[in-house]
Write a structure and sequence with these properties.
This protein has 409 residues and is an alpha/beta fold. It has twelve helices and 20 strands. The chain is globular. The two termini are 43 Å apart.
């Protein structure tokens, strides 16, 4: 049985007319013996609406109850799309995450998928139906509803594709592929025909919004080909797949920025072994992901430690840090919310020298000060003042991906 998984984002199913258009597109994808599974996000704006309602009730909604509330958004769009597909003349059946056996951890609002059984989806496909699955949600070992975090429907789609042995996972969104930068910031940004899993993962982590980073990680681990396409216009899209020699000739594939980070600085921390372990172990208990970390050279038995976390985890991280301030001898804690992270990504960085120097020089040419730096084999990230984020993206794109030179070096 040949299976293809399609995922449609919130803008794709933003109203009834669009749901009908998606239904027609899905039915068209059923060819010969090929079976189609569709994963759907909540209608555009619905998740934010539900969050707003929760925060009218309480400033700090309970995560378990929040998951049950937020999961309703996808259930609405899933049922409506199944009805629309059936109205187009093809049988369809809708499923929640629980019904298709998406088993997750118990980390409410940020659960991770442990296993996908997919038995009911297989049965529906065997019966000639199109299976329509609610994205973003699953069930934990205690039979409680969980959600996978922002962009979690991408992860649902890839996980289902892996479990079903699908030939392809198509991600339909409001853009027609993966670009070298956000076209809203860089009008001359170019769409990639192909990009490697590693590059896409780094770009997604760096702030590119086209794909959820956990979905790319899942696709990479299970070797699921991803095709990013537009719901609203025809085109080739971008294939996310294994790296090849041609890809590695490109020094920088893309530039991204993320304005959703906060910098913590612990001042006057005791300069002794185990202090950093104490701080970051406590943060880890709250399941907060720490990005950049810098510890200054100690002086007079004290040092400063700076690190960044997602803005959404600010309250959670601060609560944990305050618990260990006295035990690590810290004089105080300061927060800087007016920061952004700008990154360049490219498989070719592994074999080209001077990339960091060019990046730092480009930022300096616009008097953009670098606050923190982090690197991987194929990514360099700099923390800068938030007001310079879009300027930094443009100057770095001009430096590494100028229109006259093309992308090859």
């Amino acid at each position: 049985m040949s299976v293809i998984v399609q995922k449609y984002g919130g803008t794709s199913v933003g109203d009834i007319q669009r749901i009908k258009q998606v239904a027609a597109k899905v039915v068209k994808a059923v060819k010969g013996s090929r079976k189609v599974v569709v994963v759907v996000s909540a209608m555009a704006g619905e998740t934010d609406k539900l969050l707003g309602m929760a925060r009218q009730v309480t400033d700090r909604p309970d995560d378990r109850e929040l998951d049950l509330l937020l999961s309703s958004g996808e259930r609405v769009s899933t049922a409506l799309l199944a009805m629309a597909i059936s109205a187009c003349g093809h049988p369809a059946q809708s499923f929640t995450g629980r019904q298709v056996g998406i088993e997750t951890t118990s980390s409410h609002t940020r659960a991770r998928i442990r296993r996908v059984t997919g038995e009911r989806v297989r049965k529906a496909l065997d019966e000639g139906k199109i299976a329509v699955v609610a994205g973003f949600q699953g069930i934990d070992p205690f039979d409680d509803v969980t959600t996978l975090g922002r962009g979690g429907s991408d992860t649902t789609a890839v996980a289902l594709a892996a479990a079903l042995g699908a030939e392809m996972c198509e991600i339909y969104t409001d853009v027609d592929g993966v670009y070298s930068a956000d076209p809203n910031i860089v009008p001359g940004a170019r769409r990639h025909d192909r990009i490697s899993y590693e590059e896409m993962l780094e770009l997604a982590t760096a702030g590119a919004k086209v794909l959820n980073n956990r979905s790319v990680e899942f696709a990479k681990n299970h070797r699921v080909p991803l095709l990013v396409k537009s719901t609203f216009q025809e085109g080739k899209g971008t294939l996310v797949t294994e790296a090849d020699a041609e890809m590695e000739r490109v020094v920088v594939t893309g530039v991204a920025c993320d304005k959703n980070h906060v910098r913590f600085t612990l001042t006057g921390v005791a300069d002794r072994p185990g202090v950093a372990a104490t701080v970051f172990s406590k943060i880890a208990e709250a399941e907060v992901v720490v990005d950049m970390i810098v510890q200054n050279v100690g002086a007079g038995g004290c040092t400063d430690i700076s690190f960044t976390v997602p803005r959404t985890d600010l309250a959670r991280a601060r609560e944990q840090v305050e618990k260990v301030l006295s035990s690590v001898g810290a004089a105080g804690i300061s927060l800087d919310e007016d920061v952004a992270r700008v990154s360049i990504v490219g498989a070719g960085m592994q074999s080209h020298w001077g990339v960091a120097a060019r990046m730092f020089s480009a930022l300096a040419s616009e008097n953009i000060n670098i606050l923190m730096i982090s690197t991987s084999e194929i990514k360099i990230s700099c923390l800068i003042e938030r007001k310079y984020a879009e300027l930094a993206v443009r100057v770095l794109h001009d430096t590494f991906l100028p229109p006259a030179e093309g992308v090859k070096e």
